[in-house]
Amino acid sequence: MKRHLLSAADLSRDEALLILDTAEELARLADRPIKKLPTLRGRTVVNLFYEDSTRTRTSFEAAAKRLSADVINFSAKGSSVSKGESLKDTALTLEAMGTDAVVVRHSASGAPHRLATSGWIRGSVVNAGDGTHEHPTQALLDAFTMRRRLGSFDGRRVTIVGDILHSRVARSNVRLLHTLGAQVTLVAPPTLLPVGVQTWPCAVSYDLDAEVAKSDVVMMLRVQHERMNAAFFPSAREYSRRYGLDGRRFAAMPEHAIVMHPGPMNRGMEITAEVADSPRSTIVEQVTNGVSVRMAVLYLLLSGSESAIGSIEGESA
Amino acid sequence: MSSFLLRGVRPLGGDPVDLLLSDGRIADVGVVGSVAGAHTVDADGLIALPGLVDLHTHLREPGREDAETVETGTQAAALGGFTAVHAMANTSPVADTAGVVEQVWRLGQQYGHADVRPVGAVTVGIAGEQLAELGAMADCPAGVRVFSDDGHCVSDAVLMRRALEYVKAFDGVIAQHAQEPRLTEGAQMNEGEMSAMLGLGGWPAVAEEAIIARDCLLAAHVGSRLHVCHVSTAGSVELIRWAKSKGWDVTAEVTPHHLLLTDDLVSSYDPIYKVNPPLRTAADVEALRAGLADGTIDAVATDHAPHPDEAKDCEWAAAAMGMLGLQTALSVVQQVMVDTGLMSWADVADRMSTRPARIGRVDGHGRGLEVGAPANVTLVDPSTTWTVDPHALASKSSNTPYRRMTLPGSVYATFLRGNATVLDGKLA
Ligand SMILES: [Zn+2]
């Protein structure tokens, strides 16, 4: 493994599969009475969150704790991005505290990249979502969930629907799923697709109905309320009619196909309640899988050797 | 007043001659022989250009003396071969009154490294709401002729029309920072493949082009002079070309960094590459070079924009926009325009001295190297190379995108009215 996880684009196919396989091993822990491994004992992992995200922070925290790492939650919310010193100064503080890994969530695209490459700290940096850039562990947990439900990625068709323009989840998923051999199609109103999307390794469509019937996975993205006032589309009602996943579209999907959503959902907006709560929706298990995948990432970044996986297998045998 | 005899120098890259600078003027050109009391410079192999004139310099004084001062900025200018610079108005306080422009002008006179021509703000506080007292700035000793809200676009069409009309009374020019504000809300870099990949807010070319198109039409309508600052897109070059073909009095400048650097560099997320307007694509760079070479773009202007380290040593979104330019401009132009065969040294003199001086109405600068002209002269050694060390530059700031790059050509000497401001590559 590399020292940092900044972007899904940095992962080779082998590295991505190693993470998924490791997560699969680590997931077995969840079935045991004591859900803890000593692997990262004595290592310090800092959750550095400049943006509120209880679900992502908690997931990383649980992952680090199950590997026996010391976890420090550093909520930097409120510290102003407009005064740029904060990230550097915080980094220097963390460095002085002997941090082994920093899990960073930041509203500025590229902030984790800057943290990892500026020489401010020596530890590993894990991108837990940066601006509208990437959210690589989300893509990994999505891939993990898909593989569990569908088997392999080869030739699988994944349709990602919604606000692609502002979505770090979409960016990371396009890159990772392409690396893993799936075919991705993005569906959105043209206003919510970035200029330059034509060069991405995926297809683009404005027509959700045309895509659902041939999809193995339909991944719905959250629509932020502030987009509704910024002329990206005329109204919430029009959006949900054209780009929402309702019972009719759900019925048109192949029987084996699954529905995903990174959460939190706007029920009734991009997804109806009946679809979100259907057994073919993986929304709840995505959360569970998130912990296993993040354990795998921290584990591989910080212990850095494949042999340690063998010890897990040994224990569980 | 000292005299300088420049032996064997090549004016505009032409045949070697001797050039005698005496009493602030070019006293003789040809085979001069020895002159008693003159300081002789062995200028064999050096190229003589009329002293360079920058239409677009941020000297930061008053208000941000931690980033740059008139003293350090004009030192950088002299070392870069400039004898006159236009000091942009977005200082603190804004240069929107006769008092502030006069202060800046006097500081320039006091230090004497280069003539400082203050640019006056078009609107009060660069707020885009009310015209500043343009006439008072024109009439004061600083004699302002260039007005700009640079950093901000005069986006209100009526205000822009009135400004263009008003400055006709004193032969002024409005230098527009063309950036449609609504189209660039949240913009962080050029909109395109790279911004989509990096998840940084896109800054579309059309935001620049729409304003240029509108302003050309306005300038034509009222019969006034328009100057377009730091043109950065291929479409902008096309629009300027079209306006000129109509015979309209529209001029434009391009920065050295837009002639060399592309938005690929942003993938490092290193704020050293964050600049307004943003670095564009390779196709834009090619169009800008062609536009400069064929004269569509009148001038190279540095947009020298110093920032203290902390404004760049942070995450991309938080970083200030801008880069240093005075000491590297000529080398970058040599690399991308002269060494590529796109322009001659005579063209360089035209785009970096003659035309900017004419646009800014700068007396005594931008003249030919002929007997009787003011002795504003720059000597360039085109055969050397140098590696840019940000901390060795004269500027108070070190935000140069060329750090560790090796660039061709260096300024050997700069003369301002016959006095050396730079000699042997060092401040005189
Ligand atoms: Zn500007």
UniProtKB/TrEMBL annotation, chain A:
SUPFAM superfamilies: Aspartate/ornithine carbamoyltransferase. Pfam families: OTCace, OTCace_N. Residues 155-301 form the Aspartate/ornithine carbamoyltransferase Asp/Orn-binding domain. It catalyses: carbamoyl phosphate + L-aspartate = N-carbamoyl-L-aspartate + phosphate + H(+). L-aspartate binds at residues 83, 168, 222. Carbamoyl phosphate binds at residues 55-56, 105, 135, 138, 263-264. Its EC number is 2.1.3.2. It is an enzyme of class 2 (transferase). Residues 3-147 form the Aspartate/ornithine carbamoyltransferase carbamoyl-P binding domain. Heterododecamer (2C3:3R2) of six catalytic PyrB chains organized as two trimers (C3), and six regulatory PyrI chains organized as three dimers (R2). Catalyzes the condensation of carbamoyl phosphate and aspartate to form carbamoyl aspartate and inorganic phosphate, the committed step in the de novo pyrimidine nucleotide biosynthesis pathway. Belongs to the aspartate/ornithine carbamoyltransferase superfamily. ATCase family. This is Aspartate carbamoyltransferase. It comes from Sporichthya brevicatena.
TrEMBL record, chain B:
The active site is at residue 303. Keywords: Hydrolase, Metal-binding, Pyrimidine biosynthesis, Zinc. Pfam families: DHOase (PF12890). Substrate binds at residues 58-60, 90, 276, 307. It catalyses: (S)-dihydroorotate + H2O = N-carbamoyl-L-aspartate + H(+). The keyword Zinc applies. InterPro entries: DHOase, DHOase/Allantoinase_Hydrolase, DHOase_cat, Dihydroorotase_CS, Metal-dep_hydrolase_composite, Metal_Hydrolase. Zn(2+) 2 binds at residues 150, 177, 230. Signal peptide: none annotated. Its EC number is 3.5.2.3. HAMAP family: PyrC_classI_B. PANTHER family: ALLANTOINASE. NCBIfam families: PRK09357.1-1, pyrC_multi. Catalyzes the reversible cyclization of carbamoyl aspartate to dihydroorotate. Belongs to the metallo-dependent hydrolases superfamily. DHOase family. Class I DHOase subfamily. This is Dihydroorotase. It comes from Sporichthya brevicatena. The lineage of its organism: Bacteria, Bacillati, Actinomycetota, Actinomycetes, Sporichthyales.
